[in-house]
Amino acid sequence: MAGITGLGSNINIDDIVKALTDAERAPKENQLSRVEKAATSKFSAVGQLKSAISEFQTALKDLNSSDLFSKRAAKSSNTDLATVSATKKASSGTYQVTVEKLATASKVGTATFAKDATAAAAGTLTVKLGPDDRGVDVQVAAGASLSEIRDSLNKALKDKGISANIVSNPADGSSRLVLSSDKTGAGKDIYVQASAGLEAFRIGNFADNDPTSSPTGALTALDGNNAASSGYISQAQDAEFTIDGLSLRSASNTVSDAISEVTLNLVSAEPGKKFKVTVEQDTSTVKGNIKKFVDAYNKLMGVTKTLTSVTSVGDDKAPVTGALVGDATVRSLVSTVRNELVNPSGQKDGISILSDLGITTQKDGTLKVEDSKLDKVLSTQYEAVAGFFTGEKGLTARMNSKLDVYTETGGILAKRQDGLQDTLNSVTDQRTKLNQRIEQVQKRLYAQYNAMDSLIANLKQTSDRMSQALSNLPGVVKQS
Residue limits of the Flagellar hook-associated protein 2 N-terminal domain (predicted)? Predict the structure, then answer.
């Protein structure tokens, strides 16, 4: 309705209508804003409380785990030589270990080929991993280049764990074909049988100088100074190590069958260098989860305190109040948690309340962990600690069941948020209706003031015409 108004009366109708509609809107708008602010603040506060409870419940569930207390911590005193891991079935123990040799894989080289050499004849290369292996046949075409033979080998041997490459001498371009295996352990050297015309690819000892016969004897070392030499660059061998003085061997550097339920990962060899492997109950992880429980509890108590606090900010200012000051739900929650916290577990072995673990309540209601006492209890009464926290009657399960009614779907806090959301939806609806009503009021006021403006304009025109007519009558003197 706003536009060019008040031309007849010279009255600012827009300002008048705005002032009247603002006065009409203000009481209801202020009421809706107060309701919306309070509901939004409480909705956010309930969300914070729900999040803190959920975080506390997560800590409870992590602590209420039989797997947590059955885990074993495996440690190596020298991780440069070996690392170690253990399953929960591993028995506790300490072992003296040395690593004499690491298990290695085979790497071999062929005789030297002249630059741009090609296969003199078509034939077959049979690559074996150990002299008794059945082997893989690789066909070589007459005139095939060394790179083409390499590619054929890689394609045929990829599932066997053997790869081929070319190593060349920059001085004269001569090359050797080098084959590498990823299989460690003694007896897994690479052998190559070759048909007639491909003897330069042969690697291994063969009866009666027949390159197609089965290899015999140990694989010889490659002599890099002898162009006709072929053999191993590095030989496949077992890992050799000792445990408590017992000499042991393994085809792999990952040893999982030397100590029951314990895996040794051999990293490097240093003959005669002893180091210690220890397998014990995983007290450090348990302690970490206990501290997470304490931290989550303290956070929950901190959130409830913030949401229900009244803070003075000066004599001439109103105090700052939490969004849930005096809220019965928060009081009930805090009372429930604290009561369960001090409820004895009923165990008869000396662990029945948190203070037995070195966890005490401070003046502000938070918990504090005495590390030395907790460490001692974990080392001397490990099973009792597990019984205190875990199981249907353990502290974590009892407390978690008390908290479920607050955080579950359709629980106390969910219903509280649903009610607050309904309030916010109602505010939105009422504001829409208020806007519609103010729009009607505005239309009515513009109609009234525009009618008045039109009437004044008409009266002004009549007045002007009458003044003009009277001024033209005989005997009328015009004032200058």
Answer: 9-105
Of 233-247, 369-383, 463-477, least confident by mean pLDDT is: 463-477
User: Is there a single domain that holds both residue 336 and residue 427?
Assistant: yes
Please enumerate, as own/partner, the contacts of 8-12 that have beta carbons within 8 Å and a separation of 24 or more. 8/453, 8/454, 8/455, 8/456, 8/457, 8/458, 8/460, 9/452, 9/453, 9/456, 9/457, 11/449, 11/453
Helices vs strands, H then E, count in the chain = 9, 19
CB contact at 8 A, 164 and 91: no
Question: Nearest to residue 210, comparing CAs of 222, 193, 223?
Answer: 193
pTM for this structure?
0.67
Q: In the beta sheet, which residues pair with residue 165?
A: 178
277 and 331: one domain? Answer: no
476 within a domain of the structure (yes/no)? no
Q: Considering the domain boundaries, does residue 128 fall inside one?
A: yes
Encoded tokens for 152:
């054929």
187: left (phi over 0), alpha (psi -120 to 50) or beta: left
Residue 383 sits in the same domain as residue 408 = yes
Q: Tell me the per-residue pLDDT of 276-308, one tens digit each, with 9 for 90 and over.
A: 999 999 899 999 999 999 999 999 999 999 888
Domain hosting residue 266, numbered range: 72-102+239-281
Element (H, E) at 201: none
pLDDT digits (tens, 9 = 90+) for 422-464: 999 998 999 899 899 989 988 988 888 888 878 887 887 787 7
pLDDT at 213 over 90: no
Distance CA 361, CA 197 (A): 88
291 and 421 housed in the same domain: yes
> Could you give the residue ranges of the DSSP H alpha helices within 275-394?
283-307, 328-341, 371-380, 382-389
CATH number, domain containing residue 327: 1.20.1330
* 363, part of any domain: yes
